[in-house]
Batch of 2 targets.
Target 1
Amino acid sequence: AKKQQSISNFFSKP
Amino acid sequence: LEARLEQAAMLKRVVDAIKDLVQDCNFDCNDSGIALQAMDNSHVALVSMMLKSESFSPFRCDRNIALGINLTSLTKVLRAAQGDDILTLKAEDAPDVVNLTFESPESDRLSEYDIKLMDIDQEHLGIPDTEYAATITLPSSEFSRITRDLSALSESVAIECTKEGVKFTCTGDIGNGSVSLRQHTNVENDAKSVDISLTEPVALTFSLKYLVNFCKAAGLSDRVRLCLSNEVPLLVEYGLSNNSYLRFYLAPKIGD
């Protein structure tokens, strides 16, 4: 099954 | 800050489009305009709004300020504005409130509201500049229709873009469905065209619930742009006048 990713896995934190 | 919008409708529509996704947001004001970046509660989607100073006339912001506003409160106040009212936003240095005035263009009616500001500790994410593998520009009404129709069948949609075109596919308990679009130029009305620009094929799966939510912005623009690359968030962009924009990013669903 496909798992919903979190947006913060892709965009860098400050 | 002092920012005057010729048509209150623009801000009304922007806030309407994002208020179900994000609740408390900082409106970051500086001399280039008013920006907002916020994730939804589940950290699956991100809203990025930019209202450039050129979208206002006049626009003045002497010092950078973050206006922490609850969007439900803002919606209540904006409901008091008519779409063609002239809207002016004002805030002082280190403000407690943001002031909104609505002027009727036809009468001497002037209404004025203050909204209490809140301290919002929001982390800004760095969004990398991405050369997307596929960019699809289509009528925003068409994208709304696809997401609405497919969401009746399934929670997820697979978006596949190849040189043949773009295909939206879903599988659900009652059956399955798909919508395919090809590159198409409408000579009579360019707003109805479908433009596809592709450097490599992409196939990604997304939650339809969020896409349906993004489509609340369809009233802001005739056209919507979808940008995809494998294994990165989808960008859904509604362009506004003067290079202002409302962008939504949606994290994909990825298999093990």
Note: Chain B touches chain A at residues 39, 43-46, 123-128, 156, 205, 207, 232-233, 249-256 (CB under 8 Å).
Target 2
Amino acid sequence: QPVAMNAFELISLSKGLNLGNLFDA
Amino acid sequence: CCDADLYKQPRGLEDPEALARETVFSVSEIEALYELFKKISSAVIDDGLINKEEFQLALFKTNKKESLFADRVFDLFDTKHNGILDFEEFACALSIFHPNSPIDDKIEFSFQLYDLKQQGFIERQEVKQMVVATLTESGMNLSDDVIESIIDKTFEEADTKHDGKIDKEEWRNLVLRHPSLLKNMTLQYLKDITTTFPSFVFHSQVDDT
């Protein structure tokens, strides 16, 4: 149920914020 | 017969001990992190610096992707504001993402990240822009009404001063109530950096005991 989600929780799902990907370089 | 440049340390790793003192990394971890930096910084132009294209390439494995957040993260890493990242900027910024870094540093960095216009507060329009960007990049589709209600609910909780914006104090209170909002501010990889890049030992300048 998306309405129950905090906007920042949603934003934090962005791939651009997942810096763990840098380690697969 | 002597090319002095051959004997110079690679650009950006002149003083790993000084960088270790400035960050939460040990000298060995700094040297291992430099192995990662070399990989990323040589992807397009092998100049010992990371440009935005190389940063996006490392994040998304493609340089075609436009990302509001990759841009924003890059700009925050780029503390010298010259459009490129040297190793010192890279190490200092990633230090904030280390599991051992103080939570206050993570709160501050995440606040700056979301304060797109750098006005000292996060306004509703910025939150909407970021929500829409996240949905677009992940191919999710939510109606404008649903997006607005998510933002309404968020501001009801976060904006305790009821002035239509989230200041640093309100942000701090929000993330302390919802620690999951800081989840992407901690990279477990950084704890294992010396085992991920063991080749640093071949270039190590110090005995890190």
Note: Residues 7-11 of chain A form the longest helix (5 residues).
